[in-house]
Specification:
With about 350 residues, the chain is of the alpha+beta class. It is built from ten helices and seven strands. The chain is about 40% helix and about 15% strand. Strands 1-2-3-4-5 form a five-stranded mixed β-sheet. It has a two-stranded antiparallel sheet with strand order 6-7. The chain starts with 12 loop residues before the first helix and ends in a 13-residue tail after the last strand. Bound molecules: iron/sulfur cluster (SF4).
């Protein structure tokens, strides 16, 4: 469902459950800065579109000709994506055949809208592949990324999709359990994980999150930094996260001269948070500068070129071309090579972390 996003989306549920005001804050920031999609998100969208076509062909909804024509519209599909989406389709189709062994009426619903608004205000999402039978309701979610491994166990996104599927199909079939499955074909370790819950267990979990969902919907509650900040739109400029990251610099040390060994583990514990935040705030400052914002005391500069070069450029191009790589001429320096640098030492405003 391109372009449509729930404010309390399933994909951000881990975040708004941990930090309820984050959902409204993200909405506000997207209103100001736009909802820029990353190359990874665009890659994920393409992988989902390819998978959808492959599944529709497998179950006979489209023929080979239609498949090929629609596939062309998706642009160049990298070989890795073709292999990964084949793996995903194999898993889903095997599950469909398995379900049909005990329930000949079992059906596969592809890109099914799932409404979980009985538990989360205006909550909805899209189930990549939902298999419905009298033995199990099987809700499958494709994760194309490989940087962060995702498991279905205790996964709020998967559970919300499960609730949406239960609301849609619960009265039509007699399945006693819901199986939420995440298929992440590009990770080596456990690419397929599932969590099986009885209807009652899943419904009880839905009831348990209702109060927090209401708080998040209103934009109330306490800002709580944690691992869930990683994909938050506010991660660079959120004051709560900044305060958490700056704890490393406001640490009260026991002795005036040296940090003791006993103090190091506590410092390391906040160092990761501080490093991640500093990286995020640098990226934010640079992006704003690229949009024309002027930071006092800083200017955009072109970074140095690396010192690595081909010893024989013609020979390198020849060999790479023979290996099947396409060459394109070098253009001007990409944005990624631009950086922020201090322009004057005396004009920086002072700043100290909030308590
Ligand atoms: S950055 Fe973290 S603490 Fe701040 S709003 Fe986002 S999730 Fe909450």
């Amino acid at each position: 469902m391109p372009g449509l996003h729930a404010i309390l989306s399933a994909s951000s549920a881990k975040r708004w459950l941990a930090c309820p005001p984050s959902a409204r804050l993200e909405e506000k920031l997207k209103g100001i800065f736009g909802d820029a999609s990353s190359p990874y998100a665009r890659e994920g969208t393409q992988a989902h579109a390819v998978s959808e076509l492959k599944l529709r062909r497998e179950i006979g909804e489209i023929n080979d000709f239609s498949y090929q024509e629609q596939r062309k519209l998706l642009g160049d599909i990298p070989r890795e994506m073709d292999i990964a989406t084949d793996d995903y389709v194999d898993v889903v189709i095997s599950k469909l055949y398995e379900a049909r062994r005990s329930c000949p009426d079992a059906r596969l619903f592809i890109e099914q809208r799932l409404d979980f608004s009985d538990w989360v205000p205006k909550g909805f999402g899209t189930g990549d592949a939902v298999i419905v039978s009298d033995t199990v309701l099987d809700v499958n979610d494709l994760k194309y990324g490989k940087g962060v491994r995702v498991t279905a166990v205790e996964n709020p996104q998967a559970r919300l999709y499960g609730l949406g599927a239960l609301a849609e199909f619960g009265s039509l079939y007699d399945f006693p359990v819901v199986r939420n499955t995440i298929i992440q074909p590009r990770v080596n370790e456990d690419p397929v994980t599932s969590e099986v819950l009885t209807r009652e267990e899943l419904l009880a979990w839905g009831e348990s999150i209702k109060p927090t969902a209401q708080i998040a919907w209103r934009g109330d509650g306490e800002f709580k930094p944690g691992d869930h900040c990683k994909f938050c739109a506010a991660k660079a400029i959120c004051a709560a996260r900044a305060a958490e990251a700056m704890r490393i610099f406001t640490h009260g040390f026991e002795t005036p001269a040296l940090i003791s060994d006993d103090e190091i583990p506590g410092i390391l514990a906040v160092a990761d948070t501080a490093e991640a935040w500093i990286k995020d705030i640098r990226a934010y400052a640079k992006n704003q500068a690229l949009r024309g914002y002027q930071w006092p005391g800083y200017k955009l500069v072109r970074g140095r070129k690396g010192n690595r070069a081909w010893s024989d450029e013609d020979q390198a191009i020849d060999q790479l071309s023979r290996a099947g790589m396409r060459m394109r001429p070098l253009t001007t320096a990409p944005y990624s090579r631009l950086g922020l640098a201090r322009s004057a030492r005396n004009v920086l405003p002072s700043w100290s972390p909030r308590a």
